[in-house]
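Note to self: the last two entries modelled the partners one at a time, which told us nothing about the interface. This time every component goes in together.
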Amino acid sequence: MSPTETMREGLRERKKAETHQALAAAALRLADELGPERVTVEAIADAAGVSPRTFFNYFSSKEDAIIGIAPAQSSALLADLLARPDDEPPLDALRAVVLAAAERLQAGGDDWVVRHRLIHKHHTLAVARSAWFAEVERRMTEEVARRTGLDPGADIYPALVVSATLGALRVAIDTWQERERVGALETLIDDAFDVLAHGLRLPQRVTTQAV
Amino acid sequence: MSPTETMREGLRERKKAETHQALAAAALRLADELGPERVTVEAIADAAGVSPRTFFNYFSSKEDAIIGIAPAQSSALLADLLARPDDEPPLDALRAVVLAAAERLQAGGDDWVVRHRLIHKHHTLAVARSAWFAEVERRMTEEVARRTGLDPGADIYPALVVSATLGALRVAIDTWQERERVGALETLIDDAFDVLAHGLRLPQRVTTQAV
DNA sequence: CGCAAAGTTGCACATTCTGCAATTTTGCCT
DNA sequence: AGGCAAAATTGCAGAATGTGCAACTTTGCG
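The predicted structure of the combined assembly is written out below.
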């Protein structure tokens, strides 16, 4: 009966992280080269040097591996939201969180560019991303409900504001992708939140054009 | 038999519709009785009196059959949007469309109650619904872009307003479900659109409480 | 060392989903 | 009515997903 509480896993945790990384990288690379539908779990596992069975210990599906989502992975979006001050208005907090996510994404290197290109092109990956968004949305709704003192089951506000803001993030990313990533993603996010804050009225003035 | 009435649509079309209906009904009933994960395509096909292979001629997955979604099915949401006057502000048109959908849903009988209970409870069905929403969202975005004369690839507004409004519909349905369908779904929709129109600011006064 | 926990692997198995070719059913025309 | 062509159904084969389980191996630590 060893003291599990103070256990510091060194090599064990590191190897797990390496395997996770190797699988995600292999999945992304193969999907980019061959197209997601022509990639098998077996091929990903081979490329990462593990057995197919082990693949499913890390990812619950091929799609999740490609877009880099581990089950029960704590999302940075939620973490950022938890870090905002409690008395901040929900929409402001969410705007800051989404903006931070966008900056992180833009700074994140080529992997995210490739991922989003694939998501944009292949329906099955968009579905996987939707599922992930839904899970994040659920948890962020809980947090907004806590902040506002509302019951997330009875009151519509928490779920609504989270749905709208995550929708804004998704739409901004997709539009940015469609524009072939010309211009700053942050600008799109800002525009989107301005439109949301103004009651979704059709903007009179045409917003930033990148084309 | 008198051919005038029955032959107008044709026996072929009628039998197809019957098979479609039988499969959807069997899928829903079995999923309700056993839980979605314990239902197989084979069981659904058996209950509907067709072969498993034929099932896939009608639905692309077990989940789609349970929530009643046929591939390339034209959604009533899109049809309603197309029927709105062209010069109506997008948010107003979408509000009307979503309200109509809610009314239809409430009047629709027990099947939708069961469906939403299952969707609410089982993650895989929520994912399938998300995928369907995404497809509808894409097509409605096209239409809003046409109305506003904006480029759906370059401008964020069409996708944003559609995303927010369909999100509102989804959130309202889920909340209604959580409240065990006490009260009118239309009221929730109205509240949601009011919040959207007021820039997603936290309402000072608590809205309709059903509990 | 040696034990316990954690991670990996192979295997069996149910299931999903697709393509193809054969067969049956339906619509329609003479 | 009879028969042809299109449409729908079906069986079958096969690739692939995903899971449970029982070894087996590796790691952490006393």
